[in-house]
Design a protein that fits this description.
By secondary structure, the chain is α/β, with parallel strands linked by helices. The chain has two domains: about 290 residues, Aminopeptidase; about 80 residues, Urease, subunit C, domain 1. Helices cover about 30% and strands about 25% of the residues. Helix 1 crosses helix 9, helix 3 packs across helix 9 and helix 7 packs across helix 9. The longest helix has 20 residues. The chain is globular. It starts with a helix and ends with a strand. It comes from Aestuariibaculum suncheonense. One of its GO terms (cellular component) is extracellular space.
Length: about 375
């Protein structure tokens, strides 16, 4: 499928009722209600706090694709893109007809509704669901496992979001989208099953390089059977980890949302049209591995060295706000920044005109009597 067609489909089918970073059941429920005349929306379980976990199927094809998002409640970009995808698949556009005929999708848009509401990674019992794949101690984990067992997927899409710290390799390139074909044994063997996932990731990477050259990364494949991806991969179901990351000045993750959508449709087009054997996996191995080389802001060459600032995400009145916090004061020549401020050897002051300190929170700084916002334009 040509990239210009995918981008046009995105513009025509973007779910405008979902935006920015805070996406909860309260946000998706009206969307699901509006789709209920076209979809059978199921309640497949409940969270720790008895909030509903929803799921639905789309398509009639023999290739079964299982997708779940917001296992970590504060990772919502892939959820927005799921609803853009759903609108597209329900649009009767001729360009996706072959996908619907070739594939059947089973989608859980928010697996961790309590974490989504609180805007936290963990669930209401303070458990990371992505470390509970073996013990299955949490109701949300049991829901996911039951859905996996009942649907019997041929492919699994494990959908997440990542912080702004990641670079695509050792380069001044933000890892805007990252992938992983998880390991399925301690030796991280490149098994036939993993090769299938790698081949699909390679196809998505090829498409994304046209939009964000050098900004796609992969994660370290160290094996942890407690992780859902490793568990499903070990059960010989090709599993792909998605990580929606940072695009320049896109803290709302709306451009990244489009890039995740491009990844979805590119991969589904490929799966629908091909028998994926894993033979074309090798280009996956050329994708750079993520490194933690970015700060949100670096103030270079202050009187006390470079000042690295990270934005803390906080939920305030049902809105995610970003609070700049001084994370490091040191020589940061080996790190990059999404925004750079030059101090030219001068002292950097806070709002009270005192030198800013490690751990302090500042919306702006003062350098040479100039008030400078720490946020992007």
């Amino acid at each position: 499928m040509q990239l210009d067609i995918i981008k046009s489909l995105f513009l025509n089918n973007k779910e405008t009722r979902l935006s920015h970073r805070y996406i909860t059941n309260n946000h998706i429920k009206p969307v699901l209600d509006s789709l209920s005349n076209q979809l059978n929306i199921e309640t497949i379980g409940q969270s720790v706090l008895k909030d509903d976990i929803y799921a639905f199927k789309i398509g009639s094809g023999q290739k079964r694709i299982f997708m779940w998002s917001q296992m970590h409640g504060n990772e919502s970009t892939t959820t927005k893109a799921l609803f853009d995808l759903t609108n597209t698949l329900l649009s009767n556009d001729f360009s996706v007809k072959h996908i619907l005929e070739g594939c059947t999708f089973y989608i859980i848009p928010i697996l961790n509704p309590d974490g989504a509401k609180a805007y936290t990674r963990i669930n209401a019992n303070e458990v990371d669901l992505n470390r509970d794949a073996q013990n299955l101690t949490q109701p949300e984990s049991l829901v996911l496992k039951a859905a996996f067992d009942a649907f019997k997927p041929h492919y699994c899409y494990n959908l997440h979001g990542q912080r702004t710290i990641f670079s695509a390799g050792n380069a001044e390139k933000s890892a805007t989208v990252s992938f992983l074909s998880p390991a399925q044994d301690q030796e991280c063997t490149i098994t036939p099953n993993r090769k299938v996932a790698m081949e699909i990731i390679s196809v998505m990477n090829e498409a994304l390089q046209k939009e964000i050259p050098g900004q796609v990364g992969v994660y370290d494949d160290a094996f942890n059977l407690n992780c859902v991806g490793d568990t499903f991969q070990s059960e010989n179901i090709p599993t792909i980890l998605f990580e929606a990351g940072h695009y320049h000045e896109d803290y709302a993750r709306e451009k990244t949302r489009e890039l995740i959508y491009i990844s979805y449709l590119t991969s589904f087009d490929y799966i629908a049209k091909n028998e994926v054997t894993g033979e074309k996996y090798e280009s996956y191995l050329q994708i750079p591995e993520n490194e933690k080389l970015f700060f949100d802001v670096i103030i270079r060459n202050s009187l006390r060295g470079d000042i690295g600032i990270m934005f803390q995400e906080r939920l305030v009145n049902d809105e995610v706000v970003f609070v700049p916090r001084v994370d490091k004061i040191d020589d940061l020549k080996d790190f990059y920044a999404h925004k750079t401020i030059l101090a030219n050897g001068l002292e950097v002051l806070n709002v009270n005109e005192n030198p800013i300190e490690l751990g302090s929170e500042n919306v702006f700084v003062i350098v040479n009597n100039e008030k400078i916002s720490l946020f992007p334009k």
